[in-house]
Specification:
This protein is an alpha/beta fold. The chain has a single domain, classed as Alpha-Beta Barrel (TIM Barrel), CATH 3.20.20.70. Helix content is about 45%, strand content about 15%. The chain contains twelve helices and eight strands. The protein has an eight-stranded parallel beta barrel with strand order 1-2-3-4-5-6-7-8, surrounded by five helices. Strand 7, helix 11 and strand 8 form a beta-alpha-beta unit. Helix 1 runs parallel beside helix 2 (about 45-50) and helix 7 packs parallel to helix 9. It is globular, with a radius of gyration of 17 Å. Bound molecules: 1,3-dihydroxyacetonephosphate. 1,3-dihydroxyacetonephosphate (13P) binds near residues 93, 165, 211, 229 and 231.
Length: about 250
């Protein structure tokens, strides 16, 4: 399948000025032909949603609360994220699994909360370096994936994405080789195909971990890599546009 989804995860970066300048400098021809998503910190979502309106680019959140609107101090409900104009939400990013100690079960609940509000979840999975060195990468990703597919409606999953982000490749400049990434993506798709062949065909499996304008084309050329989740290079609109074009060419 040709790549059809490229997402910039700004992580905890940005400001009001940054996002306006970014969108002004993000030169993408219309129509872009694939889904392009910008995920700023949630406090900037409403602003960014206004700025990207009509550009063909959409936005998403980096996390979501699990409860519906109510007495949950500090949380942001999926319905609120949808209301301010976001279409997507990242769940289970390894930085949250590590920093906030998010477990598989919570990640699955977040994916379900996103779907309940009509948001498309980008569900992150991926092993640490120690887990890969011990030969456990498949078992880890399988466990993370099973927690989600056991919990969410599979039709909902088909409109979202699975992001394979090996933890050791994030922000390290150590990209997974195209072969390593392709092998894990094929495993993920195959695992979903055991539940539903049509859903496995539809769900986008995107790669994340030190994607840059130099390596994007080779990664996006792999059979089961349907796009990318970009961190560092996604903070520069020129580099990000280059990566988007690598997915469309
Ligand atoms: P980098 O592209 O900076 O490695 O980050 C990847 C990532 O974590 C995207 O969610």
């Amino acid at each position: 399948m040709r790549p059809s989804l490229v997402v910039a995860n700004w992580k905890m970066n940005g400001s009001g000025d940054f996002l306006r300048d970014y969108v002004e400098r993000l030169e993408l021809d219309q129509p872009i032909g694939i889904d392009v998503v910008l995920c700023p910190p949630s406090i900037y979502l409403a602003d960014l949603a206004r700025v990207v309106r009509g550009t063909g680019v959409v936005c998403g959140a980096q996390d979501v609360g699990i409860q519906p609107v109510g007495a949950h101090t500090g949380e942001i409900a999926a319905e609120m994220i949808a209301e301010v104009g976001a279409d997507w939400v990242i769940v289970g990013h390894s930085e949250r699994r590590i920093d906030q100690n998010e477990k598989d079960d919570l990640v699955a609940t977040k994916a379900a909360a996103a779907l309940r509000a009509g948001l498309k979840p980008i569900i992150c999975v991926g092993e640490t370096l120690a887990e890969r060195e011990a030969g456990h990468e498949i078992a880890v990703v399988e466990r993370q994936l099973e927690a989600v597919v056991d919990r969410v409606d599979l039709e909902g999953l088909a409109c979202g994405a699975i992001a394979y982000e090996p933890v050791w490749a994030i922000g390290s400049g150590m990209t997974a080789t195209a072969e390593q990434a392709q092998a894990m993506h094929a495993f993920i798709r195959d695992k979903i195909a055991h539940l539903d062949v049509e859903i496995a065909r539809k769900v986008r499996v995107v790669y994340g971990g030190s994607i840059n304008p130099e390596n994007a084309e080779e990664l996006f050329g792999q059979d089961d890599i349907d796009g990318g989740l970009v961190g560092g290079a996604g903070l520069d609109p020129v580099q990000f546009a280059h990566i988007v074009y690598s997915a469309t060419s």
